[in-house]
Amino acid sequence: MEIRAARDADWPGIWAIVTEVLAEGDAYTYDPDMTEDEARDKWLGPAPWSTSVTVDSDRVLGAATYGPNQAGPGSHICNANFIVAKTSRGGGFGTALVEDTLARARADGYAGMQFNAVVETNPAVALYERVGFDIIGTVPGAFRHPRLGPVGLHVMYLAF
Questions:
Q1: What is the per-residue pLDDT across 118-149, written as a single tens digit (0 to 9) for each?
Q2: I need a labelling partner for 145 at 20 to 30 A (CA). Which of 19, 20, 33, 80 fits?
Q3: For the chain, what is the radius of gyration of the CA atoms?
Q4: What pTM did the predictor assign?
């Protein structure tokens, strides 16, 4: 497994994972009708956003993107998004991406990382807590889960 900066040639692999996430509909507040162009803007956005991928040979297994959570006076706190291919989940790729992204964000001078909307039933919640994130609030019923109905969205934070 290698983690490196994303390249334009990685987009088809990232898009394949995004489409899996959209089809599952249980982990992100993404519009299920998100277009490929909208997804590309989100995952390969311009600086100060940065995207990395975990790859096996040239096959993209997961992706991470991070950048300022807010503009101006809130730009010292970053936000991030993580996706892992369904066939690669549970193999440590998500953990590796999170740890790598945290290290990159610290090196870039961010003071912390905030997640604005983590579905409370998402297995990644345990990973985020394991690496030091705290749940600082939950909006009850804010996410319409396709199988469970309304579930909460966590706001999570890790100070650097």
A1: 999 999 999 999 999 999 999 999 999 999 99
A2: 80
A3: 15
A4: 0.94
Residue 157 neighbours by CB under 8 Å, 6+ apart: 112, 113, 114, 115, 133, 134, 136
Kindly state the average pLDDT of the residues 71-89.
96
- Counting residues of the chain whose pLDDT is more than 90, the rounded percentage is 96
Strands 2-5 and 149-159: unpaired
CA distance linking residue 39 with residue 26, whole number of Å: 17
Domain harbouring 56, CATH code: 3.40.630.30
- The helix/strand/coil state of 12 is helix
What token pair was written down for 64?
């991470």
Look at residue 125 and tell me if it is in a domain: no
- Number of domains, the chain: 1
pLDDT at position 58: 84
